[in-house]
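Need C-alpha cells for this chain, all 149 residues.
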Amino acid sequence: MMKKATRQTGFTLIELLIAVAIVAILAAVALPSYKSYLARGKITDAISNLADYRIKMEQYFQDNRNYGTPSTSCPVSVIATQNFTFACDVGAATPSTSYTATAASIAGTIGAAAGDHTYKINELNNKSTSKFRGTSVTKNCWLIKGSEC
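Here are the C-alpha cells for all 149 residues:
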C-alpha cells in the first residue's frame, strides 16, 4: 500500500512579510488622519463654550446695559475645560459696550501635531483665530480643519 503524498498548507514567509508591510502602510496613512480627527473634536470644546459665553454676555448686557466695569475682566465667568482656558476683557469705554472673549488651548492637550490654538469672539459676534496648530494666523473665522474659512 502506497502512502499518498501530503501537501503542507500554510503561508510562506514572503506572504507573511507582504501582509505585514501592507498593514504597516495602511497604519502609517491612517494614524495622522486619526490624530487630526481627535484634535478637531477637542477644538469644538472651545467653539461651543465661546458661543455659549457670548449668549451669557448678551443676557448680562440686557440686564445691566453694559458688559461690566471698563478695562477689567468680564462679569460672567467661564470655567476652564480639559483642553482650553477662557479669558474675557471688557472695553475701555464707560459704560462698557464691548468685550473680547478668548479661548486658548492648554499646552499638550490637543496633541503635538495640532499645536496651540487661540480663538476669539466679541460683542458683535465677530469670530477670529489668532493661532492655529501652533502658527500665528489672522483669520476672521474659527479655523477647525484647514487654513481657510
